[in-house]
Amino acid sequence: MPQKSEVLASSEWLPHYYDAQGQRVQFVRLERDKIRELTFLADYQPSGGQDSCWLTAEEINNESVRPGTLHFVFHTAFARSTLLTRALDMPGFSIGLSEPKILNELAIGGPKARELLKPILRLLARPFADGEAVVVKPSNTANGLIEEMLSYNEQSRALLLTGTLESFLRSVNKKGMMGRRWVRRLFTHIMQFAPLDFGMSQSEQFEATDLQYAGLTWLLQQRQFAMLLSSNAGARMRSLDSDHFNSEREQSLSKLSTFFEIDAPPEQIRAIVEGPVFNTHAKLGGDYKSRIEIEEQGAESSVVEEEIALVAQWVRQVAQMAGIDWPLARPLL
Description:
Helix 9 packs across helix 10 and helix 12 crosses helix 17. The chain contains 17 helices and 8 strands. By secondary structure, it is of the alpha/beta class. The protein has a 5-stranded parallel sheet, sandwiched between helices. The chain has a single domain, classed as Rossmann fold (3-Layer(aba) Sandwich).
């Protein structure tokens, strides 16, 4: 088994899972190439042996680690955040960590779990190479921790990445039954930390369709981001529309590099934009255009498109009554 000092010193030993009952944290050893292969760190299944070990919460709290620069990409789901995180893998300048599982565990684990947030962020911030920044993209399950994450370090900055309402609804529909179940769970979760009274009776809530709940989920996230941008920490945040990112890839990466003070040279950014990252499906692999065509063909339906249009119109009426405006302030571009 690895020594505690080795685990705490090396950025390759990532905190992975929080055991609330045992008050301990599982670490997994992942080299940079392996991190690049994984769509989400949360999906990694350690095999044990020399590449997995446990440290107690007390050990993590009481030990210092090498300081590092940590920034964040927060998102509303289906907003090309995985693609952006892959694009931030720029050796010598930055590395992107996509959806560490432990942040989800801390977000739903209650007050005792949240006491470990700052020690865990210190561990995630350990640089993989001298001068490199670490950019963490949490799952939107962890969005209830955004303010606490940003309080980790006054130098930390965040990008708030959102897609359009219609694209969110289409993406939920493409995922079929599992997507519709997922969005209902997400709605319930967000209502716990960013609640909003929609003025719906119990009967109206029961009769609402899956896509109506998807629209309200998107609206709750949009509202949370708007509130964050107007908070005291708002100056350390920028918003970015997913479609703008996709149409202005080089400019988006350049602006984000400057905002995160990564300062990657133009030729580095151009190489990423013109390379395989943007031509490969970020989640499924394979040719991006072919994958998207298959997904869209499988989900095409004039009935669903009509429902999406009606739901979008209804959500805009709800937003108007609630005084919620979009697009978001402080745009990156």
